[in-house]
Structures are given as structure tokens and as C-alpha cells.
Fold this protein.
Amino acid sequence: MLAWLLESSTTGIFGRSLFGAHTNRHSAWFRTRGVKREVQTRNQERRADIVATWWGGQKTHIEVKVGDEQFKKIFET
């Protein structure tokens, strides 16, 4: 659902409210060029839950945790 919400936002307001509230970037910068789910790492040992590519070209890796306390693997991903 989060991936869909980010990808379907045409204004970028949703992305900015989650990830850019403390930046000087305009909401339009947080429109996505694409959102991918379950993206494998280069060595294919881990998967990133969500990777959002913003209009500005930067990417954000979003790790979704519900009841999983193995935080060490986040940094590896």
C-alpha cells in the first residue's frame, strides 16, 4: 500500500510529508519516477522492501518492519 501511495501521488505532497518535511525541496521534487518492491541486492542475498526514485533522481530505500526485529540486515541491504 505504501509503494502504491508514493507512486500514485501526482503532486509529491505525500512523499514530502514522509521524507522531506525538513528540507528546502518543493513537493514536486518528491513525485516519483518509479517505485519498485522487493528489489534484490547485487549479490541477490537480500531484498529491499521498497525503493522509490524521486523526480530529482535520488532514491530512498524503505524497509518495512512488522514484528521483525532483525535490524542488522537493513544495513546490509
The chain has three helices and three strands. Residues 2-8 form the longest helix (7 residues). The CA atoms of residues 39 and 48 lie 5 Å apart. The two ends are 21 Å apart (CA to CA).
